[in-house]
Structure to design on (500 residues):
């Protein structure tokens, strides 16, 4: 084989960057990457490009774009001795070898630990478009960042990064530390608690969806520290911002907040229905919504209301009204949805159910039709597949099968035509992550610290199980001939060839 032919063959195996969590349209966790190893060994260095120490509590899914790897963590392993203290940290690492390009620190909210749980760090994955990085900080701020950080100067219009990275409250230093070349560069910032009155709970978890010039953001609003009260009942659950300026353009008008049982952690999806774009969203009240995308910005000073064109009740048997009176009721309670809704070939797949921490022990994977008039409400339900007591997973749907995990340590492969189990497997550990399908394989990690690789398909075949020694909460990401696994403490880049 000639050098040119070999290079062409190598390039054909690489699908490229993974610039957001899930596919750009429907959020399906399926990658076109090829040439991914079916096994690896970090201790022996087998099929491992590099490993980077990141923090002590890391929950965010890694995103890879433009030669950079973006990952949220905490500041318990400070990379800058001048910047210490409990903060969320967004890391930007070099895709080739994992060395630090820049970091952005955001101190914890000081009012109440339930607003921004101590040590949990930065939980939201980023979305990258060109040289702009969109994300939500641990303080509930929507941020637009410069992918190059401060290395090329402070681009503005936001110029107060030095002050923003400093601790707040009575222990705040008297002067801000000026940002350096290894610090992040904020282009603009939209403070959701201040601007739209949300009440974050435990921590923000949002994957920003880009559609044209607009950003769709689940707000992360939820209960207070008693878990019984919605302090801001008028707060939106889904907002739309101008990606160029951060201006608030629209919000949902569904009055979801009073019926949120825990929090709003499910990120929006995008799909086409009968040739028309639709934004699909799972509310913290257990309802599913389809909205028309915002067509144009409203006049200055006004905020538009998103037009709902579809809805479905994920759990029609749930109790109605006074939802927080069912707190800690393990037999009867409202449902919540943690993962994203996935639209595949005109059908919507979503996993959810009772809240394991505060509600009933019951969960399902459900399939809904997404058609227009006449296919609303419970009539749109196609099938229901029972899961074990609780799930945080986004399903991965490919080649007639859906893969999803539950908190009973079971991994499920389900036929999407019939809604029946094809096979299941005991993983030996609780699962907070979602599966990734790539290169004929299915990858998933557990909170026990095991990373599993299955052969994709109707025959159950375990290809590999690696003990990584630290809990895994994040979904694996495939990009440019490798896949990336984030544990609580380390990021592993797994691939058979070095990064170019």
């Amino acid at each position: 084989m000639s050098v040119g032919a070999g290079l062409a063959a190598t390039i054909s195996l690489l699908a490229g960057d993974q610039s957001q969590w899930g596919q750009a349209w429907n959020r399906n966790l399926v990658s076109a990457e090829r040439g991914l190893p079916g096994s690896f060994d970090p201790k022996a260095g087998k099929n491992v490009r590099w490993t980077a120490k990141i923090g002590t509590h890391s929950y965010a899914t890694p995103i890879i774009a433009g030669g950079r790897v973006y990952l949220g963590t905490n500041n318990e392993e400070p990379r800058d001795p001048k910047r210490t203290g409990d903060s969320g940290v967004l890391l930007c690492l070099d895709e080739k070898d994992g060395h630090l390009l820049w970091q952005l620190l955001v101190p914890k909210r000081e009012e109440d630990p339930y607003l921004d749980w101590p040590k949990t760090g930065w939980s939201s994955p980023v979305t990258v478009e060109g040289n702009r990085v969109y994300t939500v900080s641990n303080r509930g701020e929507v941020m637009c960042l410069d992918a190059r950080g401060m290395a090329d100067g402070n681009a503005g219009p936001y110029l107060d990064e030095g002050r923003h990275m400093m601790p707040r409250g009575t222990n705040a230093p008297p002067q801000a530390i000026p940002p350096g070349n290894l610090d992040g560069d904020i282009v603009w910032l939209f403070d959701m608690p201040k601007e739209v009155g949300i009440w974050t709970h435990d921590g923000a978890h949002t994957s920003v969806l880009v559609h044209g010039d607009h950003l769709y953001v689940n707000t992360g609003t939820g209960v207070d520290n008693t878990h019984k009260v919605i302090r801001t009942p008028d707060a939106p659950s889904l907002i739309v911002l101008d990606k160029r300026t951060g201006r608030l353009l629209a919000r949902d008008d569904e009055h979801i907040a009073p019926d949120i049982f825990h929090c709003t952690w499910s990120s929006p999806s995008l799909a086409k229905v009968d040739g028309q774009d639709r934004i699909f969203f799972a509310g913290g009240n257990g309802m599913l919504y389809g909205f028309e995308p915002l067509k144009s910005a409203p006049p200055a000073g006004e905020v538009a209301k998103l037009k709902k064109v579809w809805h479905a009740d994920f759990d029609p048997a749930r109790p109605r009204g006074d939802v927080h009176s069912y707190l800690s009721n393990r037999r009867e309670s409202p449902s919540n949805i943690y993962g994203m809704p996935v639209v595949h070939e005109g059908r919507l797949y979503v996993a959810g159910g009772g809240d394991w921490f505060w509600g009933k022990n019951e969960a399902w994977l459900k399939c809904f039709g997404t058609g227009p008039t006449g296919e609303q409400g419970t009539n749109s339900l196609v099938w229901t597949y029972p899961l074990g007591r609780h799930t945080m997973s986004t399903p991965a749907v490919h080649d007639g099968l859906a893969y999803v995990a539950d908190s009973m340590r079971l991994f499920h492969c389900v036929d999407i035509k019939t809604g029946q189990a094809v096979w299941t497997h005991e993983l030996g550990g609780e699962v907070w992550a979602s599966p990734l399908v790539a290169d004929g394989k299915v990858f998933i990690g557990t909170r026990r610290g095991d990373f599993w690789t299955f052969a994709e398909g109707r025959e159950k075949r375990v290809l590999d199980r690696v003990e990584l020694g630290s809990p895994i909460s994040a979904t694996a990401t495939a990009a440019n001939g490798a896949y990336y696994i984030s544990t609580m403490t380390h990021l592993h880049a797994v691939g058979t060839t070095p990064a170019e």
